Amino acid sequence: MKITLFMLLSSCIVLSGCQVMSATECEVANWADLGRQDGLKGYTSRIDSRVKSCNKKQIAVNATDRQQYQQAYQSAILQYCQPKNIYQLSIIGQGSISACPEPNRSRVRAIHDTASRYYNNKQDIESKRNNIRDIDRKIDKVTDKDERYKLLEQQRQLSKDLNHLLEDQIQLERELELVKP
Q: Residue 74: which domain range?
């Protein structure tokens, strides 16, 4: 499901056929709400793409609407960029600090980087464990001696890699405690 959604969104971007806002959305938009939503999701400001989308539909966006968007966005992005929020999102692989303005970005960089490394290492551990399980199943089915030897060698290397990742995870957990807000 996630892959399908990603492919759909990617193709929209590549083909430039997806519209940011429909005509109805442009007509009834609460620009302050849109700015708030974009900021709370950690997006960079989308005012220009939203206005361009509405303009393509012959719907003008006035200066007051733009200002309401920007004010709400600025307030919301500062909420998003709080250390606790960045920590909670980054530790599950969803945090980004690219839209955080300075000095907030510098303040949360170590939190984001450490929590993201923790998440990525955790994903690598799960991947290695899955690979080891797959090889276990293959070993049970293989009758050829040479093939079995190759699989056992792969399994040994994966187990070695897994042990390194587990050691890294212990260190990352210590680092997380140091940066946790």
A: 17-80
